[in-house]
Specification:
By secondary structure, the protein is α+β, with helices and mostly antiparallel strands. Helix content is 56%, strand content 17%.
Length: 425
């Protein structure tokens, strides 16, 4: 069956197939040129394209004669004699050959480095890349750099020198911001992203090119800001610690000075009590003179308070020197030793100075972690309400520092009670 014997519909189908096949072969040839392949594709593609074009023209001319009903020309008479099945087989074979060449071309592009694959790779990068000649004319700009340029400046990358000049002068799109950082620039876009723009000179095969790179540093910039804030906070904390250390050293020095003053005060107090007792009751005059000589040397700075001696033993000797019998019942807890010494010293002073007593009893009990210390003297009870000042006020401060309680009573005799619950500490 020839082309002149088949129906118009069949002729139209064959014509459309031949027409599309011509475009398919053209696409193969164009793709080869764009991708930079060096295969000998033209040896097959050009003859195939010519044959497909001839078949398409034959089918077209026959269709015009059949539809128009006019007398055929010599070319049309020859075309009518072509076998329709042969034309169909030819188109199918050409389609299969085209398919094989297309697949082979795709495989070659995917497995080799070509200008097209290089451009595709650069466009897939998350960073912006631009290569330009010394005049700033772009030779290659990937899609990321184009996007950054459009969003930041409101126009595409047309010249790298103009782009850099806009960044230097801050001529960017509304809502964006550019800042100079060293030899580069930071470009802040409206979407919150931050791009680090860098430029360097590249020399390849004797040609000078400018390479412009754009890095997305949004996360790094955020962490850098966070680190700067933390560093500032740590600097402030460090400054506070240094101030606290200086204050603590000052407090320690003050406490040491205060402790020395207290020791001197205690020694002077014992000397005064001994003098009062000697004047009232008499006693060992030589011991009193020796005590006052030591006290005078202490005030002149010639002597140092004796810290090596047992404070309780010293209080016992002081009590004996002033004619007071000091009795101690119970065991002093080690953690309350200093507080107990202060309390005995204050009660001994009050016994001699205010009550004219000759006996001071100290009773200490420790029951289930609750320590109770009771101080009593046999002197004259105070008249009226006891006023806490001087030594008693300092003693209460020391008791409260240990989270304890202090009570005073004058009926029937002067009694001072201290309670410290060590379970609550």
């Amino acid at each position: 069956m020839t082309l002149g014997d088949i129906s118009v519909f069949t002729l139209a189908a064959l014509g459309i197939g031949a027409y599309l096949l011509n475009f398919m072969w053209l696409a193969v040839m164009i793709r080869r040129s764009v991708s930079g392949l060096r295969s000998k594709l033209y040896i097959i593609a050009i003859p195939a394209l010519i044959l497909c074009t001839v078949v398409m023209l034959c089918i077209t001319e026959v269709s015009r004669c059949v539809i128009g009903g006019r007398e055929p020309s010599v070319f049309e008479q020859t075309a009518e004699q072509l076998n329709a099945a042969g034309c169909l087989i030819f188109l199918i074979v050409m389609t299969l050959i085209w398919g094989l060449l297309w697949i082979k071309q795709e495989t070659t592009i995917m497995s080799s480095l070509t200008p097209q694959s290089l451009e595709d790779g650069l466009n897939s990068l998350p960073d912006g890349i631009t290569f330009a000649d010394p005049n700033g004319v772009p030779l290659l700009v990937n899609s990321t750099m184009q996007r950054v340029c459009r969003e930041g400046l409101g126009r595409p990358m047309l010249n790298t020198l103009t782009f850099e000049d806009c960044l230097q002068k801050g001529m960017v799109a509304e809502g964006c911001r550019a800042e100079i950082r060293g030899k580069g620039y930071y470009l802040h876009l409206r979407d919150g992203s931050i791009w680090d723009i860098r430029k360097r000179l590249v020399i390849t095969k004797g040609h000078k090119l400018w390479e412009l790179l754009a890095y997305d540093i949004t996360e790094r910039f955020s962490k850098s800001r966070e680190l700067e804030e933390r560093s500032a906070h740590l600097k402030e904390v460090n400054l506070n610690i240094r101030n606290y250390t200086r204050e603590l050293n000052a407090i320690i020095r003050e406490e040491e000075v205060l402790a020395a003053k207290i020791r001197i005060h205690d020694d002077v107090g014992r000397a005064l009590l001994a003098l009062k007792s000697y004047l009232i009751r008499g006693g060992d005059r030589e011991a009193l003179i020796e005590l006052w000589q030591f006290t005078a040397g202490l005030l002149r700075g010639e002597n140092e308070p004796d810290d090596s001696a047992d404070p309780i033993g010293a209080l016992m000797e002081a009590a004996k020197a002033v004619g007071v019998e000091l009795t101690l019942t119970g065991r002093i807890p080690p953690d309350l030793h200093k507080l107990t010494v202060i309390a005995i010293h204050e009660c001994l002073t009050n016994t001699v100075k205010h009550a004219d007593g000759t006996r001071l009893d100290v009773e200490i009990t420790d029951k289930d972690g609750c320590v109770t210390e009771i101080f009593r003297n046999d002197g004259k009870p105070p008249r009226g309400e006891i006023s806490e000042k001087g030594g008693l006020k300092s003693l209460r401060t020391a008791v409260e520092k240990e989270r304890g309680e202090m009570e005073l009573s004058a009926d029937p005799q002067f009694t001072l009670t201290i309670r410290v619950n060590r379970k609550e500490q």
